[in-house]
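Note to self: keep these together.
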Amino acid sequence: MRHGLLFVLLAFAASCGGRAAAPDGVAAANAIADVVARVDGVSIRASDVAAEMRRGGGSPRAALDRLVDFELLAAAAAHTVTPATDTDVGEARDQAAVQLLLERELEPHLGKDSIPDDVLRGLYQKALSVFVHPRLVEIGLLLVYTGARMKAEPRTQALETARALEAYVHAKPASPDAWRAIAAEPAWRDRKVQFTRTWQALDEPFPAEVGRAVTELHHPGDTTPLIVSEVGNFLACYIAERPPENVSFEQARDKLRDQVLDRWRKAQFLEFAQAAANPHRIDAYPERLALEPGLGD
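Structure:
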């Protein structure tokens, strides 16, 4: 961890040098000039934002947010160092103090085992169909939608189109690329023929009529006869399949931790920085960023 996330979170500190609390006599002038934020009286100028953008990329607002976070953390860590009269020495001490603060207060709580189970369970439930499913068949679909409320005459026309399409495609090799090209042909596109590619279970994402038909597909090139349902008319071709799975939460936990770890660590850092902001005064003027050459969003 010491050589991973913390270095990413702290790298922008190198561009923070040279900022200091604005003297009272020039505060108003700075507010009108290039000061884009103050944290407890410490000014952050447009030039600081430009330097941070060159270092870390992103938008002007993102760069400004990173600089504000650093000042907040530096203030939180200030009691651990002796104040320095030399500006450069003070900035260097701030950077070191912030790193020590994060290593002491945050780093011990950022291991994979620290991710709460309720966070992981939420992800598991959202992705349940990935972990628990019957045999899935990846298919290419040519379809002519109708919808449950379509009236008789346009429904009949849609069925006629689908039957003509079935005769047309069955005289050609079946593959996703070939079927996508057919759907793009003006003669079929103008008749509202569409192509899509999906993993089909017994009754999702397309109706059970489609699910039952594709269970009979097992090899590339296999195709279904025309499938007629209340919501549309379909032709399916086999691409691949996945066997049934029933992976419990306990079995999936480690995989979920690996997938969410980076995002969760960043969220913990932002929460830590937000907590540091609570007792401090922050005055931000992000609209001034657009007034500075090269800093407009």
